[in-house]
Amino acid sequence: MRSLIPVFLFCFSFCGYAQSSSGGKLLWKYQAAAGIIGGACAGGHDQLFFGDTTGNLYSLSVSGKPHKVLAKLPAGIQSTPAVAGNRLFVYCNNGILYSLDLKTGATVWQFNTGGEKQYDFWDYYRSSPLFADGLLYFGSGDQHVYAVEAATGKVKWKFKTGGIVHADPVLSNDTLYIGSYDGKMYALSAGSGQLIWEFKSIGDRYFPKGEIQKAALIAGDAVIVGSRDFNIYAISKSTGNGLWNRKEAGSWIIATPILHNGNIFYGTSDSHSFYSTSQEDGSTNWKIPIPFRSYNTPVVFDSRLFAGCFNGILYELDPASGKVLWQFSTVGKRKNGQTIFDASDQLRKDFKIYGNEEETARAERMIFNVGAILATPLLRDGVLYFGATDGYFYALDLR
C-alpha cells in the first residue's frame, strides 16, 4: 500500500505543553519517522511498543527514554502489536504476522497469509493480533480469520469470510467475535474456528454490503458494532439475533464504542458527531457536534471521558452531558490546522474532502498533516499514550 503520510525526521522532546489548566499535561512527545495509525501496547519492563506506516517498530520506556527502533519491517504497520512473554507479535501491511524477540527485535518466525489489500482510501486499519491461551487470532485482507500458535507460527485453524477482515478480534467465553467487509459479524469457536453464528448488517443504498471495519464491543449479553451502512448494532452474544440498531443518517459508524456506567460512547464519520447512548436499547442520552470524524475508541479514566478526532484534537468530555471540558492539540494540528479548518475550527468551505481519486488522495494527505488521531490511546497508570498521523507519539498525564 502506498502511504499517504509524509516522512518525518526523528526527534525527541520533553518540552511539555498543555492547552488548558485542567484535563491533562504533556509529559513528553517522540517523533517517529512516519505517521502512526495503530495503537501501542505495553510489555517487558515498562516498555511501550508501536509501529509507523513505513514499517518501523518502536520501543520506548513509559518515561520516554530510552527509545529506539526495535525493528524495521518490510511494510507499514497499521495495527496494534501484542506482547506475550518475551515475544512481540506484529501484523504488517504485507500480510505477514511477525514474532519478534522483545529485547532485540530479531525475527523468531513469520506467518504468511494469502496477502493484504487496501479496500479504499478510508480503510485505515489492519487487524491486530489477539493473544490468548497460546494462540494468536487476527484477520487478513485475504478474507480469512486465523488462529496461529504463538510458540511456532503454525496455523491452528483458519476461517473464510466473504470479504477483507481488518477488524480486531474480540474474545469472550471461548468465542471469538470478528467482523468482515462482507458486512457480517461472525462468532467462531476459539478452539476450532467452527462457525457458531453469523449476523448480516442491513446495508444501505450506497453501501449495500454494510462493511464492518473495526472491532466490536462486548457489553453484557450483547455484541455492539458499527457499520458502513450507517447503523450501530447490538447483537445477542449467544444467538446472533439482533437486539437493537440505530441509524446515523448519512454517516458511517466505524469507531468501537466504550462502555461506562451502562452507556456506550462513540464518534461518527461524516455526521461529525459524538454520542452517549444506552447500552440496553441504543436510545440517545446526548449528542454533541465535533469538527470531524472520530474512529478511535474513547478512554475513561477516573470517570473522565477522552476521545480523539481527525482534526488533531483529543477531547475530554463530561460523560453525563457531553460538555467539552478540555482539549489537547497535536503538533500537526497547531502547525497545519489552518489548511483545512477555519478560525472557529470548522472545516473550511474551500476544502474538498471527496472527489476523484487524485482529489481524494490530496485531501487525505492534508488531513494526515494536521495530526489526525486515529489510534486508540493506551491508558496506563493514569497516563494516556497515543500516536497521530503527524508522526508524533504523545504521553499525557491525566492525574
Word description of this protein:
The strands form eight sheets. This protein has a five-stranded antiparallel sheet, with no helix packed on it. It has a four-stranded antiparallel sheet with strand order 3-4-5-6, with no helix packed on it. It has helices at 331-336, 357-369, and strands at 11-13, 25-31, 41-43, 47-51, 56-61, 67-72, 82-84, 87-91, 96-101, 107-112, 130-132, 135-139, 144-149, 155-160, 170-172, 175-179, 184-189, 195-200, 217-219, 222-226, 231-236, 242-247, 258-260, 263-267, 273-278, 284-289, 299-301, 304-308, 313-317, 324-329, 378-380, 383-387, 392-397. It is mainly beta and 399 residues long. The longest helix has 13 residues, at 357-369. The protein contains two helices and 33 strands. The radius of gyration is 20 Å and the shape is globular.
Outline type: globular
In spatial order, strands of the major sheet run 1-2-33-32-31
Q: What is the arithmetic mean of pLDDT?
A: 94
What structural class is derived from the secondary structure elements?
A: mainly beta
Main sheet attributes: strand count, strand direction, barrel closure? 5 strands, antiparallel
Q: Quick one: how many beta strands? A: 33
| Low-pLDDT stretches | 1-21
Rg is: 20 Å
% residues in beta strands = 35-45%
Helix percentage: under 10%
Distance between the termini: 39 Å
- Counted by DSSP, the helix tally is 2
Record the SSE blueprint.
Elements lengths: L10 E3 L11 E7 L9 E3 L3 E5 L4 E6 L5 E6 L9 E3 L2 E5 L4 E6 L5 E6 L17 E3 L2 E5 L4 E6 L5 E6 L9 E3 L2 E5 L4 E6 L5 E6 L16 E3 L2 E5 L4 E6 L5 E6 L10 E3 L2 E5 L5 E6 L5 E6 L9 E3 L2 E5 L4 E5 L6 E6 L1 H6 L20 H13 L8 E3 L2 E5 L4 E6 L2
Antiparallel strand pairs: 1-2, 2-33, 3-4, 4-5, 5-6, 7-8, 8-9, 9-10, 11-12, 12-13, 13-14, 15-16, 16-17, 17-18, 19-20, 20-21, 21-22, 23-24, 24-25, 25-26, 27-28, 28-29, 29-30, 31-32, 32-33
